[in-house]
Amino acid sequence: MRAAAGLALALAAIVGPPLILLVGFYELNVSGWQFVEVEVEVVDEKGMPAGPVYVAAFELADGGPRLVADGWADLKGVFKFEARIPRKLVAELKDGTRVYAPFNLWIIASGNDSRLGTLTQPLDPSTMKHPRDSAKLKVKVRRVEQAASEAVSTASACWLPIPYQEESWAWTNVLQVGVWDNISALFEYPYGAQIAVQSKERVWLVYECRYSDWYDAGGATLVTLDFTVRRWQWLQGRLVYTLQFELKYYFVRYTPPNVGNLQIEKVYAVDTYSDPRGDRVLSESWNGQLPGWSYYVLVDQGNEIGIPITRSPLLYTFSVGVTVTFKNAGVSVGLSVGKSGAVGTLTIKAGRWQPGYLVRVESSDGSYVVTRCNWIKP
Description:
Layout: E1 20-23, E2 26-43, E3 54-61, E4 64-72, E5 78-92, E6 98-100, E7 103-110, E8 115-123, E9 132-140, E10 142-143, E11 165-178, E12 183-189, E13 193-205, E14 210-211, E15 215-224, E16 229-230, E17 239-254, E18 262-270, E19 278-285, E20 295-299, E21 304-309, E22 316-326, E23 331-341, E24 344-350, E25 358-363, E26 370-376
Parallel strand pairs: 2-9, 11-26
Antiparallel strand pairs: 1-2, 2-5, 3-4, 3-7, 5-6, 7-8, 8-10, 11-17, 12-16, 12-24, 13-14, 13-15, 13-18, 13-23, 17-18, 17-19, 20-25, 21-24, 22-23, 25-26
């Protein structure tokens, strides 16, 4: 395998007898690798096979991207490789489900004619057939058009910036609930729960001597919690509470080795061995007016209900769940955040109110990640 822009290291081969390693808070059974046959189909903007293009596959790991496989797709635009994923046990749930750390994959397809396409795709050993499974992925490439700039011939800054990566920690929204008089809320995010965080990219256009705008990188990375985060004291008052986790992010530059006139910059959340590094709850006032969302449950006076915090149907519940700043790179990027995988629980308690009133608990999308509660009279 060839190294790519100094960012990647090939996965090391594990030899010797089976043994158990303790890596941070994960238990790693070296005899328990997950093997995934990955087939990448590269298509053009019309959905037709893109033909022979260069494909590189990276693990978006802590420490920076690590090269898993690279090579040329065939005439049908198909590139195949085997991903060898360590089964790092994070949690064993009450129902016996074992949750393993995700393997966040980044696929880059590039052509000599300035065609480029990327995909960010988590592979989750928790949901795969062990020891071997398969995954079919599709990457769409498009031609990156550039107009020649006079500055290119006179300014060295117009050429490719040097390879670079930087890490940063940022407070990330994962849950929000608004309550009112005599309405209280608690939450619990168990270890093993997964947070889906959008990844974004932009391209340095050499011929135009500028960056493109940041755009969605075609997927998200998963961060799995290594600790249970629970609020023991009831949240009360005419307030909206936002739960934030402190997560780790990376900024990286990658230059496809077969393309000399563009470079990709990427920002992604990384799954570490101790997520989240911190958690906190912020509060702000609100006027108590329910948004009128169509997803809701009703709670009678004097009762309480535990509501599962589930996978967001729209993937991203928070349109801007975090803004990550990389000081040395001079970059600040807003990312969306959603919920994936194992569920948490939001508990709502209805106190006493005027006769005939109920508490209406509304969700923006049915996941109850963003929730508002107030009294209504049916």
